[in-house]
What we know:
Blueprint: E1 4-8, E2 11-16, H1 27-33, E3 37-42, H2 60-75, E4 81-85, H3 87-97, E5 103-107, H4 116-136, H5 140-143, H6 147-154, H7 166-178, H8 180-188, E6 203-208, H9 218-225, E7 230-234, H10 241-244, H11 246-258, H12 262-266
Parallel strand pairs: 2-3, 2-4, 4-5, 5-6, 6-7
Antiparallel strand pairs: 1-3
Helix pairs in contact: 1-11, 4-7
Amino acid sequence: xxxYERTGSGEPLLLIHGIAHxxxxxxxxxxxxAEEFEVITIDLPGHGESPAFDLAGRTVREAVAHELNELRxxxxxxxxxxxxxxxxxxxxxxMADAGHARSVTALSPAGFWxxxxxxxxxxxxxxxIQAVARPLAxxxxxxxxxxxxxxxxxxxxxxxxxxxxxxxxxxxxxxxVASRAGIKTFFSGAYRYPGATQTDVPTTIAWASxxxxxxxxxxxxxxxxxxxxxxxxxxxxxxxxxxxxxxxxAEVIRETARTQPRDxxxx
Length: 267
């Protein structure tokens, strides 16, 4: 069973982090939404405090879908609002395709590669980051006290890495190292987003304007593939926008969740 936390009260809102991250990535956003929603943050398989990712003969897509469905059943939640970042954004869209999401907010979602080079770039980027993180992890607690060090090591994920709490940056580095098997498994099954989210599910694709991981031109691919969705920019944010501007991210999620489904608009 995936590790998770539940905070607040109201309609259920599931938050899914990206590859190599952990549920604590949503901390500032949870604080801003917990008075309106029951917020559920999770650790993906092989990440954070969740068990190792066991495919058990399944594809990555099948295995992670099973884990998310099992969690929904355990929590007794049929159709939560879902927001995700990067890989989490892709998973949020696929939950909508399966009829398991009431609304979707995808922040710089994975799966909208323009060509194979996009995927190779991202895979190479994470390989390089992991190569640096492994020797860095034992001294990260002291080294990342430096704003310069946080900028150099975290700049590919955040527009403002200097704002990161040093303790959080060190914990994220340790998680990157501890999650390497799960990261490898997810990359082994990487794929382009194959579907088109149901038009009766309010959907927002919000791309970080300063994304150095999933480059912003991929937003054009998403706009072509999902013309019924709301498409917007997260100005001044990096690939993981929840730290750069938690107020903006919380407001985008809130606006999407409040949007009336199209079938109800017609009625």
